[in-house]
Write a structure and sequence with these properties.
Layout: E1 83-86, E2 91-93, E3 122-125, H1 174-200, H2 228-235, E4 239-246, E5 249-258, E6 262-265, H3 267-270, E7 280-284, E8 290-299, E9 304-309, E10 319-320, E11 331-336, E12 344-359, E13 368-375, E14 387-389, E15 394-402, E16 419-423, H4 424-437, E17 443-444, E18 458-459, H5 476-479, E19 487-491, E20 494-495, H6 499-507, E21 514-521, E22 524-531, E23 533-534
Parallel strand pairs: 10-15
Antiparallel strand pairs: 1-2, 1-3, 4-5, 4-7, 5-6, 6-9, 7-8, 8-9, 11-12, 11-14, 12-13, 13-16, 14-15, 15-16, 17-23, 18-19, 19-20, 19-21, 21-22
Length: about 550
């Protein structure tokens, strides 16, 4: 083959119940004894309880004797058969059976008196059946309803007393219960309503009218010229979006304005306009103003084209850089209209250089081989023809192709971080020639490649095929001393891996450039200098 060959993301109530007393096995008395004890204190047989207040008995358990100095009688031995209560409800032992109660009160100095100076009163509880106890002469300090009503007849003695029966104990008044119920109901209702409020209140109930975040800090939107923002601000006015409509098809792409008001773009962006028939090219600038445009010239082999807009609206021309000074790792910025999103800026670095890329479809007349600048700056359909610039805002490449893992349903796929741009030096030459002559020269060295060779380097065919000789007679290779069967190992220090790489490298060179070629012949390495030539000029269809 020749060097023209190509490849292609809750209460209880407590209450008190009167106690009923009986003798030793006797029947229960027919009266109901009023209670004189505070709630919770109940008369009992057995050991008298202690009271730790001012009316405390002070005697030991089993106490049954009165103080002899006071003329009181004592009972029998042991615990008293009868239990007496003083008016304060303190319990003490009375005499045994047949014993007589003494008169008078205990002296206050014995610790038995009322702190008020009044004599303490006692109440005797009899255990004889049918004999009720006499009421106390007075009962103080207990409040209404605690002392029994005064007796109406009879004389109370040790064996009994006359008088009316005490009134029955009453419970809480109905009015009190009603008030209490109302209070409880009101409280429950209030708590329930508050709980419901807490559960159902809207989020906006916590608004704070005085809340204020304050003003935004002061600052500037001016950025250093060398920053990405600075570079974008400089370059964007020079980048355009192109829409080509022709019949039932339409295509979009990007481009940039160069000297003379011309726009450089890709050939595949405007190809529909050069195929004849009715077509229209609309060019939109960064200020959103649009104008029609016309094709000046195309070069399918290098995938470049030049378009002339009718108006430029004062847009500045972009600055072209030098792709020969680009190195791997350099920061770069891609600007264009991916998927129709005009004025999109992405950034990355130069990932590789001299990457052989096939643009277009295989076996197509528009198949293009590029010795491209590889970048990880996001490039997507619609970026084609836009500039890839360095931190100085200079164009170092024309975004032209992307690598994908497969085509989408619509026939296109997005960026995976592998984008390729045509080196600007090549684009400069081709654009200049298209503007000047309408066509561009095609670089050649005049050799035919042996595609069956599997060794290192690129082998020049050994024999003629289909009438094409391995080396063009008197061509650039022949003049440098290369011969059929020689294996080309390097071109300007770039080690070759296959024939496609050789083709891409040669096509990016301009006719007249000199190349240093290292080759092998007969097991020996040799070096030669080859001057790039130009293929014969072929008739080029005139653009519409």
């Amino acid at each position: 083959m020749t060097d023209d060959a190509g490849t292609h993301k809750a209460h209880g109530a407590e209450g008190r119940t009167p106690s009923d007393f009986t003798d030793d096995g006797g029947a229960a008395p027919e009266f109901s004894r009023p209670e004189f004890l505070p709630a919770g204190e109940v008369p009992f047989h057995g050991e008298p309880p202690r009271d730790d207040g001012w009316s405390q008995l002070g005697g030991p358990p089993g106490y049954g004797q009165r103080n002899q100095q006071t003329g009181q009688h004592s009972g029998q031995q042991g615990y008293p058969e009868q239990l007496r209560y003083d008016d304060r409800g303190s319990l003490f032992g009375e005499g045994g059976q047949g014993g007589q109660a003494g008169q008078g009160a205990y002296p206050a100095e014995d610790g038995w008196g009322d702190p008020s100076g009044r004599a303490r009163q006692e109440t005797t509880i009899f255990t004889s059946p049918g004999v009720p106890p006499p009421p106390p002469s007075q009962a103080f300090g207990m409040g209404p309803g605690w002392a029994p009503p005064p007796g109406t007849g009879g004389h109370g003695g040790p064996g009994g007393f006359g008088g009316a029966a005490p009134p029955a104990r009453r419970g809480p008044r109905t009015g009190t219960m009603v008030v209490l119920a109302l209070v409880i109901a009101l409280l429950a209702s209030t708590l329930g309503s508050f709980g419901t409020y807490l559960l159902t209140r809207p989020a906006s109930s916590s608004h704070d009218p005085s809340f204020d975040l304050g003003k935004a800090p002061s600052g500037s939107n001016v950025r250093p010229p060398e920053s990405i923002a600075g570079v974008a601000a400089k370059v964007l006015p020079s980048v355009v979006s192109l829409t080509v409509e022709g019949g039932t098809s339409a295509s979009t792409g990007s481009g940039f304005l160069i000297k003379g008001g011309y726009v450089v773009t890709n050939n595949h962006v405007v190809a529909g306009a050069t195929a004849g028939g009715q077509s229209q090219i609309q060019i939109q600038f960064n200020n959103r103003k649009s104008t029609p445009g016309r094709v000046v010239g195309v070069d399918p082999e290098s995938d470049l084209a030049v378009v002339k807009p009718e108006e430029t609206f004062g847009a500045p021309e972009i600055t072209l850089g030098n792709s020969d000074n680009v190195v791997v790792g350099d920061p770069v910025i891609a600007i264009g209209s991916p998927l129709g999103l005009t004025g999109t800026v992405t950034s990355g670095i130069v990932s590789s250089l001299n990457r052989p890329v096939q643009a277009g479809e295989e076996n197509s007349s528009d198949t293009t081989w590029l010795s491209a600048v590889q970048t990880d700056a996001a490039i997507n359909p619609g970026n084609s023809g836009g500039p890839l610039v360095n931190t100085n805002g200079e164009v170092i490449g024309v975004n032209s192709a992307i690598a994908t893992l497969g085509r989408s349903v619509g026939g296109q796929s997005g960026s995976i971080g592998l984008g390729f741009a045509i080196p600007v030096n090549h684009a400069r030459r081709v654009a200049q020639e298209l503007i000047a002559t309408g066509s561009a020269k095609k670089s050649r060295i005049g050799v035919t490649i042996d595609s069956t060779f599997e060794g290192s380097g690129v082998k020049i065919a050994s024999e003629s095929k289909q009438g094409i000789q391995p080396i063009e007679p008197n061509g650039p290779a022949a003049q440098a001393g290369l011969k059929p069967g020689d294996v080309i190992l390097e071109i300007d220090g770039v080690v070759l891996q296959d024939g496609n790489e050789l083709i891409a490298l040669i096509r990016n060179k301009a006719p007249g450039e000199k190349l240093t070629v290292k080759y092998q012949r007969g097991g020996q390495e040799k070096t030669a200098t080859v001057t790039v030539g130009a293929a014969p000029v072929e008739p080029t269809p005139q653009p519409s």
